Amino acid sequence: MSKILIVGGSKGIGSALLKLASQDHQCINMSRSEPTVSSDNIEHHTIDVLEGELPDLEDISTIVYCPGSITLKPINSLKEKDFISDYEINVIGAFKVIKRYLPLIKKKENASILLFSTVAVGQGMPFHSSIAAAKAGVEAMSKSLAAELAPSVRVNCIAPSIVDTSLASGILRSDKSRENLAAKHPLKKILTPEEIAEMAYFLISNKASGMTGQVIGVDAGLSTLKI
Description:
The protein is of the alpha/beta class and about 230 residues long. The chain has one domain: Rossmann fold (3-Layer(aba) Sandwich), CATH 3.40.50.720. It contains five helices and seven strands; from the N terminus they run βαβββαβαβααβ. Helix 1 (about 10-20) packs across helix 5 (about 195-205) and helix 2 (about 80-105) packs parallel to helix 3 (about 130-150). The longest helix has 26 residues, at about 80-105. The N and C termini lie far apart (about 45 Å). The model has no long low-confidence stretch (mean pLDDT about 95).
């Protein structure tokens, strides 16, 4: 049974992945609040990875960094602190965790790292300049690390469209807004955390042992199809 570190497993995609992965693996969760998922296979550390000192761990083979942000503002309303905050949450936090625990996972077979981007990196969307810039950094870091750490550690990235989580609640604030957003996707749907978690679980499993340096779009067809 491998041991998986999930950063941000108390909410959204991270919570769905923690629930899924803890059925068959030991999982360590790090987040500012305790996860709602309960299992004997879960070890929790209450921590803000940007501010706190990361704890000593043993025997992990996988790092999944889930924290993210959704800063949607017109350029005239954006402040420098918005760009800095988005970059810190999405890039610096991931860097800090990876650097701290990389020596551990490099000792393991099928070691892997999984990060999260957004469909807005590859497809220009209004009001996304801050978060798209930060997530572009996540994608670039994923590919660079995949090259640097091969063949001992696989590094992949998922780029979802909007997902029905508390982070997106301000956007999915009404039935009408949900309907309008779903209509923009070829599959006419808003993705669930469980759908993204299933792809995440696959990418960190032995079934994806031939995949590294990939940015996988799970976006209901938004990035590639025009219907």
